[in-house]
């Protein structure tokens, strides 16, 4: 579906366009060569992000994907194990990068969120001194996880378990801003525990490019080298960093509006024939009759509303900066029409 045909684009919160004020901040950004660590805007963004997340240091990366891959690369040696949810982004949606780039062996679990169950952890940690066994190196968490908030007790428990057994823990917090908003805690509280944390500026916050990896100073020094190895050293990146900095100042508090709008959309869609919908932070997860989700997404697209079938019976809609109150009313009406056409 070409984006131009979509009047209301709920496919992802990556679809936002920079606001005029953000574009002005970007145009006015002071810049330098960031590979030489001489870009004042990038430096300001890294310092500000580290301060907000309560970490010693941050590294600006072109994408959350790259930040996750750098975390995996630093945590394990070739042949070591990486533990993560079977549907985690780091394992399932980054082209197998942890296997290709870092040659880690994935061990997966399933469940409602990205926190590995206690019994699974206890089972996996047994026998790691056996000569046949690969060595576990990293446990990955994700918050939010397809919009679902992971309870912080789980994050603390898994991080403590990792450290007790000499493993590292990584948090893919691409939407940690949404999790902190939903939990009513500070970003530093939401980030506490894991050794490394990814956050993303180009999802809910509406910046055009970039993410950050957070950790202690020495890990971030090594991460800077790994980013260069991957070809991710950027030059006058202050222009895009300024968009992210603007987003940190102006677009974090408003995330509660996205969550409220997602609630309203879910409530309206639950009244549509054959649909039941649930709001999870800024995402609406709608269940259809078995096998109907791709047809519903296609019909919604024909009505100018973009959404994605993420399973044969599940459609995902994501509320973001470019979706206002009237868009929610309009999207609910058009998707309801599509559901009625399917049910007829
Ligand atoms: C949870 C999560 N982590 C990481 C990423 C990677 O983000 P990007 O493709 O912008 O690098 C995404 C992308 O949607 C995501 O949803």
UniProtKB/TrEMBL annotation:
<feature type="domain" description="Aromatic amino acid beta-eliminating lyase/threonine aldolase">
    <location>
        <begin position="9"/>
        <end position="286"/>
    </location>
</feature>
<dbReference type="InterPro" id="IPR023603">
    <property type="entry name" value="Low_specificity_L-TA-like"/>
</dbReference>
<dbReference type="InterPro" id="IPR001597">
    <property type="entry name" value="ArAA_b-elim_lyase/Thr_aldolase"/>
</dbReference>
<dbReference type="InterPro" id="IPR015421">
    <property type="entry name" value="PyrdxlP-dep_Trfase_major"/>
</dbReference>
<dbReference type="InterPro" id="IPR015424">
    <property type="entry name" value="PyrdxlP-dep_Trfase"/>
</dbReference>
<dbReference type="InterPro" id="IPR015422">
    <property type="entry name" value="PyrdxlP-dep_Trfase_small"/>
</dbReference>
<comment type="similarity">
    <text>Belongs to the threonine aldolase family.</text>
</comment>
<keyword id="KW-0663">Pyridoxal phosphate</keyword>
<protein>
    <submittedName>
        <fullName>GntG family PLP-dependent aldolase</fullName>
    </submittedName>
</protein>
<dbReference type="Pfam" id="PF01212">
    <property type="entry name" value="Beta_elim_lyase"/>
</dbReference>
């Amino acid at each position: 579906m070409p984006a131009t045909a979509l009047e209301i684009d709920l496919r992802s919160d990556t679809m936002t366009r920079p606001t005029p004020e953000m574009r002005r901040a970007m145009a006015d950004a002071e810049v330098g060569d960031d590979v030489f660590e001489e870009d004042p805007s990038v430096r300001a963004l890294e310092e500000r992000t580290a301060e907000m997340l309560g970490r010693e240091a941050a590294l600006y990366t072109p994408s959350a994907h790259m930040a996750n891959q750098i975390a995996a690369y630093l945590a394990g040696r070739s042949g070591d194990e990486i533990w993560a949810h079977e549907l985690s982004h780091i394992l399932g949606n980054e082209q197998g990068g942890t296997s290709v780039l870092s040659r880690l062996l994935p061990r997966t679990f399933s469940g409602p969120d990205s926190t590995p169950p206690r019994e699974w952890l206890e089972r996996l940690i047994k026998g790691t001194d056996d000569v046949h066994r690969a060595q576990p190196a990293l446990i990955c968490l994700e918050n939010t996880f397809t919009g679902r908030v992971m309870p912080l007790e789980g994050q603390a428990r898994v991080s403590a378990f990792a450290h007790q057994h000499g493993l590292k823990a990584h948090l893919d917090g691409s939407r940690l801003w949404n999790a902190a908003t939903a939990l009513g805690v500070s970003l530093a509280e939401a980030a506490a525990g894991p050794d490394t944390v990814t956050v993303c500026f180009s999802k809910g916050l509406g910046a055009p490019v970039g993410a950050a990896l957070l950790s202690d100073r020495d890990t971030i020094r090594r991460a800077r080298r790994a980013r260069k190895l991957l070809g991710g050293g950027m030059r006058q990146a202050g222009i895009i960093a300024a968009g992210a900095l603007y987003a940190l100042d102006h677009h974090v508090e408003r995330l509660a509006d996205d969550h409220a709008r997602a609630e309203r959309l879910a409530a309206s869609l639950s009244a549509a024939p054959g649909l039941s919908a649930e709001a999870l932070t800024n995402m609406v997860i709608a269940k259809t009759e078995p096998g109907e989700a791709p047809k519903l997404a296609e019909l919604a697209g024909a009505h100018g509303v973009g959404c994605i079938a993420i399973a044969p019976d599940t459609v995902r809609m994501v509320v973001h900066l470019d979706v206002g109150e009237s868009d929610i009313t309009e999207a609910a009406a058009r998707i309801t029409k599509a559901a009625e056409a399917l049910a007829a």
